[in-house]
Write a structure and sequence with these properties.
mainly beta; Immunoglobulin-like; four-stranded mixed sheet; four-stranded antiparallel sheet; about 40% strand
Length: about 140
C-alpha cells in the first residue's frame, strides 16, 4: 500500500531544502548551499482526461510500500527509495540509479484531494486525482411584466 498524506508534509523536516541551507553572497547575489546525497529523479508524465489529472512515474524494482505521496492544494510531492542490491560486485557500467528520490510537482489544474488514487504495477507508479469541477454562475433573468 502506498502512503498518501493530504495537507501535511512530514518530509520537509530534516531535509536540506533551499530555505534551510546557509546563505552566501556571490557577486552581490544571495546563494544557498543545498546538499542532498544520492537524490535522483525518475522520468514522469503528467496528463489530463476529461475528469482526472494523471501522473505516471517510471521506476522499476520497487514495492508500493516504498512510496510516500503528499498532496497539499496543487503541490504533489512523490518520495521513494529504491534499494540497491546488497551483493558484492565489480561494475563494468553503472547507469541504474538507486537510493532516495523526490519529485515536487505543481499541478497544472485544481484537483479534489479527497479522490487521489495511486497504484504501482509493471514498473510504473500511476497517480489519478479528480479535477476540481468549475461551475459557471449564470445571471438571473428578470421577468418583464
Amino acid at each position: 500500500m502506498i502512503d498518501i498524506i493530504l495537507g501535511h508534509d512530514p518530509l520537509r523536516q530534516g531535509w536540506n531544502n533551499i530555505e534551510d541551507g546557509p546563505t552566501f553572497l556571490i557577486d552581490g547575489s544571495p546563494w544557498r548551499l543545498v546538499s542532498r546525497h544520492r537524490l535522483w529523479r525518475p522520468p514522469i508524465d503528467i496528463y489530463e482526461t476529461d475528469e482526472n489529472l494523471v501522473v505516471r512515474l517510471e521506476v522499476a524494482g520497487m514495492k508500493e510500500s516504498d512510496f510516500i505521496l503528499t498532496l497539499r492544494s496543487r503541490r504533489l510531492l512523490i518520495y521513494g527509495n529504491r534499494s540497491d542490491i546488497t551483493e558484492r560486485r565489480a561494475y563494468h557500467q553503472m547507469e541504474i540509479p538507486f537510493g532516495e528520490f523526490s519529485i515536487d510537482i505543481e499541478l497544472p489544474v485544481a484537483v479534489n484531494s479527497e479522490t487521489i488514487q495511486a497504484s504501482y504495477q509493471d514498473g510504473f507508479l500511476k497517480i489519478v486525482i479528480s479535477k476540481e469541477q468549475s461551475y459557471t454562475i449564470l445571471p438571473i433573468e428578470e421577468n418583464e411584466s
